[in-house]
Design a protein that fits this description.
1 helix; Rib_uL2_dom2; 16 strands; Transl_elong_KOW-like; cytoplasm; translation elongation factor activity; 187 residues; mainly beta; flat; 53% strand
Length: 187
């Protein structure tokens, strides 16, 4: 247990009957009249929902122990993805629901940060951008290059992103893992 005075960005709290919430931002407020309070913006770890919550200053809150480890992605096994701890070489099976849309940017032997609470994987964090090869895209038409248009391209992971018309099959591109946007070619 800790008090609201111990809150920091990124810390994980256990509230409302065991749900885990990550502190996105917080602000201690001391009005001229009345008691101090702490205004927070919390993100639910499982659903991703963001809410504003106000706590009276000094009240006790339960801080959840979330272990964040760098792990290497090995392979997909049916409904789960297998990750290996790079320090202990222990393998961890993570469900498709926890991996979510990050699966679109996971290549074998790629590293990711896995957050674990009491043995349960909560979420995975990929680097901000990854380099992937275009496995299939239609050729751009002559004369279309000046318009700045885009076309769909399938990545080696199976995900489809929008790329400029001059990109061709077999090229390596940089992709933003948060939005799925094309960031540029890789030489």
């Amino acid at each position: 247990m800790a008090t609201t005075n111990d809150l920091k960005n990124g810390i994980t709290l256990r509230l409302d009957g065991g749900e885990l919430w990550s502190v996105v931002e917080f602000q201690h407020v001391k009005p001229g009249k009345g008691g101090a309070f702490v205004r927070t913006k919390l993100k639910n770890i499982t659903s991703g929902k963001v809410v504003d919550k106000t706590f009276n200053a000094g009240i006790k809150v339960e801080i959840a122990n979330v272990d964040r480890r760098e792990m290497q992605y090995l392979y997909a096994d049916g409904e789960s993805y297998v990750f290996m701890d790079t320090d202990t070489y222990d393998q961890l099976f993570i469900s498709r629901e926890v991996v979510g849309k990050n699966a679109d940017y996971l290549l074998e032997s790629a590293t990711a940060v896995v957050a674990i609470n009491e043995g349960n994987p909560l979420y995975i964090e990929l680097p901000a951008s990854v380099e992937l090869t275009i496995s299939q895209t239609d050729p751009g038409l002559q004369g279309d290059r000046s318009t700045g248009g885009t076309k769909p391209a399938t990545l080696e992971t199976g995900a489809v992103i929008q790329v400029p018309l001059f990109i061709s099959t077999g090229e390596k591109v940089k992709v933003d893992t948060r939005s799925g946007d094309y960031l540029g070619r890789v030489n």
